[in-house]
Specification:
Blueprint (H helix, E strand, L loop, with lengths): L4 E4 L9 H10 L4 E7 L11 H8 L5 E7 L7 H7 L3 E4 L7 H10 L3 E6 L17 E5 L15 H13 L5 E5 L7 H7 L3 E4 L1 H5 L5 H8 L3
Parallel strand pairs: 1-8, 2-3, 3-4, 4-5, 5-6, 6-7, 7-8
Bound molecules: D-xylitol-5-phosphate and zinc ion (ZN).
């Protein structure tokens, strides 16, 4: 079984102190930093772009897990790669040619992630599974932090895990949205090996990041 990793979302960080927030995450044992990029078009919220990522990247040495919720995504891939993204995750609905966008990310020597909204089916990406490094299963409708976990997506995680095992594939299975101490074990048992968490990591236990990360890892 793959090691469980936590990718805290900076959407719940103090935006006036992002540099020190990133350092707090690194010191607290985060395995990577989840950056939610939103365009006010693909999702109804606006967040940060490449210059902010570039500036933050200098503040720590762990991987940047960049979740692009922007459309059309293809023409912006290179800018996020140049800014310092290590993993670039896109939604199939945000590109008119998923394979072309996947190959673009690979050509930049970055890890490729593809994300499925709660309503999106595995069939949308099945033909691409051989080429990708990570599948991000959304457990809320993308757009905002602090939403309620949708337990029905766990079936999709299980289905994906089964496909992975049957075909001897090695992509990571990441889950994103409403992850907390009550549901993290179920997500892991279903097959997720990377948990994204904003609210739980930053706000639980008076913001004790190290404790929250360890609890999510079931330690
Ligand atoms: C939602 C984002 C998530 C979310 C996670 O669109 O992709 O990364 O902010 O935050 P919590 O853990 O608060 O649901
Ligand atoms: Zn995200």
């Amino acid at each position: 079984m793959k090691k469980i990793q936590i990718s805290p979302s900076i959407l719940s960080a103090d935006f006036s102190q992002l540099g020190s927030e990133i350092k707090r995450l690194e010191e607290g044992g985060a395995d990577m930093i989840h950056v939610d990029v939103m365009d006010g078009h693909f999702v109804p919220n606006l967040t940060i772009g490449p210059p902010v990522i570039k500036a933050l990247k200098k503040q720590c040495s762990i991987k940047f897990d960049v979740h692009l919720m922007i459309s059309p995504v293809h023409k912006y891939i290179e800018a996020y790669s140049d800014a310092g993204a290590d993993i670039i995750t896109i939604h199939p609905e945000a590109t008119d040619n998923l394979e072309k966008s996947i190959l673009k990310i690979k050509s930049l020597n970055k890890k490729v992630g593809v994300s499925l909204n709660p309503e999106s089916k595995i069939e949308l990406i099945i033909e691409q599974l051989e080429k990708i490094d990570l599948v991000l299963i959304m457990s809320v409708n993308p757009g905002f932090g602090g939403q309620k976990f949708m337990p029905e997506v766990l079936d999709k995680v299980k289905q994906l895990k089964k496909i992975q095992t049957q075909n001897k594939m090695y992509f990571d299975i990441e889950i994103d949205g409403g992850i907390n101490f009550e549901n993290c074990q179920k997500a892991i048992e279903a097959g997720a090996n990377i948990l994204v968490s904003g609210t739980t990591v930053f706000k639980s236990n008076n913001g004790d990041i190290k404790k929250n990360i360890n609890l999510l890892k079931l330690k």
